[in-house]
Write a structure and sequence with these properties.
By secondary structure, the chain is an alpha+beta fold. It folds into 3 domains: 61 residues, no CATH class; 124 residues, EIF_2_alpha (Alpha-Beta Plaits), CATH 3.30.70; 140 residues, Helix Hairpins. 73% of the residues lie in helices and 7% in strands. It is built from 9 helices and 4 strands, in the order ααβαααββαααβα. The chain has a 4-stranded antiparallel beta sheet.
Length: 375
């Protein structure tokens, strides 16, 4: 196969193609017609599309940048087995002639989830042999996704509220225990009685000390009078001394008793202060958890991401496959190129033999001419 032969010029190539133009044209038409016929017997597939908007957080400054991680998670979320299974069951796609399973629905090109660049839009595309059913499947799937997302948001709020409610129950129990301990101690410790005893004993000792001081003064006066008037009369002094001694003994006993009562009062007051502090802390903790329950519920609701269908799927009028005009065009191009290439190959194989025959005829013609001229 020698394409670079000197006699095989562009003109000869053009002449070869021109001489085979009918065959090339026929091949092109046949290939186009074959592509059209093949497209006509293929199953028509209709495409329906709907879009879901991923909402922004309801708190804080709006962020107009696309949260890729969030959108990617929702892309995976929309391929959840439960959504697909509910869709299959709702339209009876598991029965003939479809016989679709969850895996076939996901992997067979029936459902496609796509993200629109730099937006919060999730596209849901469904391809199915029936136009209305394709639109119904897309819309039903979108509503199922919205419902499942709402259920997830509700469950999340319930988990948060339940957690804080459990904490509140424990805090309530702690508050009840602290209150009971405080009430029991107040009733059994008799701290108020101890305080009154300390007060009365202190007042009595103050009175006894004042009386003791007064007796000592009287004794001093009596001793001075006796020495100046009647040195032998000491009966009054003896009485005063005896009374002073008795009063001093009473003060010593009262002092010991007061010391014990004061120690007991201090211990009881420390315990009371500790129990009061524990009760106050338990009450404050219970009130704080009550506020946190409300705040957490509002926070979860504000941070919840919602899905909203922004453009429902409409019944498509034309199938997306097969693309008959494109297939016909591609078939015509293939037929033209194939027939042209085949023509060139045939021309290349036939040209050396024709040139050999032409040389052989020329040599015979020369011999005839030489014979006629006598050479």
């Amino acid at each position: 196969m020698v394409f670079a032969d000197k006699e095989y010029t562009l003109q000869n190539l053009w002449l070869a193609l021109k001489s085979s133009r009918k065959w090339i044209l026929a091949s092109t038409l046949i290939a186009a017609l074959g592509a059209g016929l093949l497209s006509s017997v293929q199953t028509r597939i209709f495409g329906a599309k709907t879009q879901l908007l991923v909402s922004e957080s309801k708190i804080g400054t709006p962020d107009f940048r696309v949260p890729n991680e969030l959108l990617r998670s929702y892309e995976t979320f929309l391929l959840d087995d439960s959504l697909i299974q509910n869709t299959i069951n709702n339209f009876g796609l598991q029965r003939p002639p479809y016989g679709l399973s969850v895996e076939a629905f996901r992997r067979g090109g029936v459902l496609r989830i796509s993200l629109q660049k730099d937006t919060r839009i999730l596209g849901i595309a469904v391809e199915f042999p029936q136009a209305k059913l394709a639109a119904d499947i897309a819309n039903f799937f979108a509503k199922q996704a919205i419902g499942l997302n709402e259920q997830m948001n509700v469950r999340q709020r319930q988990r948060v509220v339940l957690f804080f409610q459990n904490e509140m129950e424990r805090a309530s129990e702690n508050l009840q225990v602290a209150s009971n301990r405080l009430a029991e101690f107040t009733q059994t410790s008799r701290i108020e009685e101890t305080r009154l005893l300390v007060k009365h004993l202190s007042e009595r000792m103050s009175g006894d000390e004042a009386r003791l001081s007064h007796l000592r003064t009287d004794l001093s006066v009596s001793q001075a009078r006796r020495q100046s008037l009647n040195p032998e009369n000491n009966g009054e002094e003896l009485d005063l001394s005896a009374e002073i001694g008795a009063l001093q003994e009473i003060l010593r006993v009262d002092a010991r008793k007061l010391s014990q009562l004061v120690q007991e009062k201090v211990a009881k007051e420390e315990t009371l202060n500790q129990l009061t502090t524990e009760n106050k802390l338990a009450g404050d903790n219970y009130l704080m958890l009550g506020r946190r329950v409300q705040e957490a519920s509002l926070m979860v609701s504000a941070r919840a991401v919602d899905l909203r269908q922004v453009s429902p799927a409409l019944t498509p009028e034309r199938p997306i496959r097969p693309r008959t005009p494109l297939n016909i065009l591609l078939g015509a191009i293939f037929g033209f190129l194939a027939s042209t290439l085949l023509t060139l190959l045939i021309q290349n194989f036939s040209s050396p033999r024709k040139r050999t025959e032409e040389r052989h005829d020329e040599e015979k013609l020369r011999e005839i001419r030489r014979g006629s001229t006598g050479y």
